Amino acid sequence: MSIGQTLKDARSDKGLTLDDLQQNTKIQKRYLIAIEEDNFAALPGEFYVRAFVKQYAEAVDLDSKELLLQLAEQTGKDKEATPEEVVDSRTKKRKLTESNKAPSKFETLYTYLPTIIIVVVVVAIVGSIYFVTLNNKKADAQIDSSSSKVSVSSDVSSTTKKASSTKKASSEKSVSSEKKTEVASKKAKSTKKSSKKTSSKQKITSTQVGASTFTYELTGSKAKTTIKLGADATAWMAVSANGSQQWQGTLSSGASHTVTLPTGTESITFNLGNSKATTITINGQKFNFLKEDATTTVRTIVINVKD
C-alpha cells in the first residue's frame, strides 16, 4: 500500500476530514490532498515532503519513522540534506579552494602593511617633536628680547583694567548661571521623555508551550503592527491576523518580506515550515521564539495582542 493511501485510511479510521486535519497540522489542504495522492511533486520541495509526511503521520497516530523509510524507498532518494548542511558543505569547499591558492602580490603587500604604517607613524611623531622643540626655542628667544623693551603702565591704566576685569567676571558668572539653569531644564525634559519611552516599551511573553504550537502575549505594541519575515535558508511561512491569512510564501536564503497587519488586530498566527532558518521582527523588535524550543522544525506560533 502506498504512503498516501496508508495516511488516508488512517485519517478515515479516526473520523477526520481534510479540513479537520488542516486545522490540526496547519498544512494547507491542497498539500494534504497531494500527499494522499502520492503527488509529492506538488509540494514546495523535498524538505517539505518529509516534514509534511512526518506531521501528517503523527496527527493520525502512525509511526512517522516507518513512513519516512517507506518514502525514501518509494521516491528512490535517501534522506535529503538540510539547507544548513548544504551551506556548510559549500563553505568548506570554498575555503579549501582559497587556501590552496598561491598568495598574490597584493596579499604579500597587505601582510607587511601594518609594519609600514607603524614605521610611518613613528617617523611622523619624531619629526613633530623636533619641530615643536625648535619653535619653542625661537619663541623663548623672542620673549627675552622683547621683555627688555616693555615699559611699566600708569596707575590709571592699571585701575581701568581691574574695573573692566571685574565687570567681565560678573558678566561671565551671570551667563554661566543661565546656562546651568538651561541645562538642568533640558535634563528634566529628557528624563520625562525617557520615562515615557520606557513605560510604553513593547514586550512579548510566552504563555503556553505545546508539541508544535507555542502561544505568546504581546503588550505595548503600536496601533498598526508591522511584521518582517526573514530566512537564513529556504523556508516556507504564512502570517494570519484574527484568523485571516495576510501572506504566505517561500523565502530563499537572505530574502525577507514585510507585512503590515490591520488596525485592531487581536491575534497573530505564524505557520513556519522551517522555523530554525526563519527570523521574525515585530515593530522593529527581534522575536526570539527558538528559546522555548530550538529543536522543532515545523511549528505554529500564536500571539495574543493586549492593550
TrEMBL record:
Give any Pfam family that matches: HTH_25
Listed Basic and acidic residues bias regions: 79-90, 169-185
Q: Name one GO molecular function term.
A: DNA binding
- Keyword hit for Transmembrane: yes
| Chain ranges passing through the membrane | 109-132
Top-rank taxon of the source lineage equals Bacteria
Q: Where is the composition biased (Low complexity)?
A: 152-168
Say if the entry is tagged with keyword Ribosomal protein. no
In this chain the Cytoskeleton protein RodZ-like C-terminal domain maps to 229-299
Give the compositionally biased regions (Basic residues).
186-200
> Where is the region Disordered?
79-98, 152-202
Q: Which UniProt keywords apply?
A: Membrane, Transmembrane, Transmembrane helix
* Full protein name: Transcriptional regulator
